[in-house]
Amino acid sequence: MKPVIAILAAVMIAAASSAEKPKSIDNAAAAIAIAEPAMIEKFGKAEIDGERPLHARFVHEEKKDAVWVVEGTLATGPKDVALFGGVVIAVIREADGRVIELTKTL
């Protein structure tokens, strides 16, 4: 039994060490590709499909705090109809591609 445990432990350690390291996000398409699955998981595919196209913009005051902000598009109605609602917003850390905020505006 001990050899089996030792082999399983070795496989798990090897898998953990070969896991991909987080990568810096260097363009809007990459930011959207990271944000979209998180948005769909939290708000549902139908909600996100209704807010396409998604847009990303790079925001930073200092390089260490740089983020990508990915936002949905507010639906438009007929010329004389005012629409109310908000859009989904994801904030992604530029340095490692982690989603650090996921919300919806009112």
What does this structure look like?
This protein has three helices and four strands, in the order αααββββ. It has helices at 2-18, 28-43, 45-49; strands at 55-59, 67-71, 88-93, 99-104. With 106 residues, the chain is of the alpha+beta class. The model is unreliable at 4-19 (pLDDT under 50). A hairpin with a 7-residue loop joins strand 1 (55-59) and strand 2 (67-71). The protein is elongated, with a radius of gyration of 20 Å. A four-stranded antiparallel β-sheet has the order 1-2-3-4, covered by helices on one side. The protein has one domain (22-104).
Short description:
With 106 residues, the protein is α+β, with helices and mostly antiparallel strands. It has 3 helices and 4 strands. It has one domain (22-104).
Query: How many strand units?
Result: 4
Amino-to-carboxy terminus distance: 58 Å
Number of H/I helices: 3
H-E string: HHHEEEE
How would you sum up the global shape? elongated
Helix-and-strand structural type: alpha+beta
Mean pLDDT: 81
The helical percent reads 25-40%
How many whole angstroms does the radius of gyration measure?
20 Å
> Reading side by side through the largest sheet, how are the strands ordered?
1-2-3-4
Q: Proportion of β residues?
A: 15-25%
Reported for the largest beta sheet, the result is: 4 strands, antiparallel
Low-confidence runs (pLDDT<50, min 5 residues)?
Answer: 4-19
Query: How many structurally independent domains?
Result: 1
